Amino acid sequence: MDTMRDRFAPVVTRLLDEDPRVAVVLAEIGRDGFAEALRRHPDRVVNVGIREQLLIGAAAGMALTGLRPVVHTFASFLVERPFEQVKLDLGHQGAGAVLVSAAASFDWPAGGYTHMAPGDVALLDTLDGWTVHVPGHPDEAETLLRHAVAAGDDKVYVRLSVQSNARGLPVDGEGFRTVREGRSGVVVAVGPVLDAVLRATEGLDVTVLYAATVRPFDAAGLRRATGAAGTDVVLVEPYLAGTSTAAANDALADVPHRVLGLGVGRAELRRYGRIEEHVAAHGLDARSLRERVGRFLAVGGAVPAGA
């Protein structure tokens, strides 16, 4: 199966052909995928070199002239390094852009901590007005990329990952989707963690919601799932643990509830390892999730064989 990032350049190249407002801004990363697009649209495909602050500044300038810039590099260089420019050049100036990241959380362990950004969504949460898409499959990534580019002049972050669920689900860039119903609690699975969550909760009397768009947070969808009496909620996110706990608490502020936020821990894991080893170390594999979710919701049992 191809990856989300494999879809990125072909989809955006087609958008460049279809819409004269679309522009692409790169900082070396991903330039080979746009070689043909550069030939066809030399005025709307720009590579600024290894200058991430300029990457955002140039995109903001394009947006202020009426273009719809799509900006791409690794998450740590797209959100963290040029954060001041994200805050001021885009946010303060009211300029919109589509930021599309790669190497989410720990997708490239050999790159070390400089190339990891599990705090990217939490960092964007300190700013106003960002839509955040976290697709769980290449098909969803393609749909959400098109949604993002078509979103007027909004500020949109699309978080691509090499981690993927086995199959894509219909996504609309808006609310949560119910994939399993139960009565003993609600588990919200974000993007590529859905398969692990479904294996972990197999046979448990819990509702599972799927979120491929996490900002705006679907407060109404969570309230419907928990019911008028309120209930306990587990958030399983493929980035910093607890990123959405405040949003969930706000959604359920008037009903009894508890919220557990699971995700990538704050401790730096200093050995490269493999993606699967990082997943297990952060307790995001199916077996660990089964134990953690079961203990919190007071449901349990071993992960079924073959799950």
From TrEMBL:
Organism: Streptomyces prasinosporus
InterPro entries: PDH/Transketolase, THDP-binding, Transketo_C/PFOR_II, Transketolase-like_Pyr-bd
Protein name as annotated: Transketolase
UniProt-listed SMART domains: Transket_pyr (SM00861)
Boundaries of every Transketolase-like pyrimidine-binding domain copy: 2-168
Domain of life of the organism encoding this protein: Bacteria
Pfam family, one: Transket_pyr
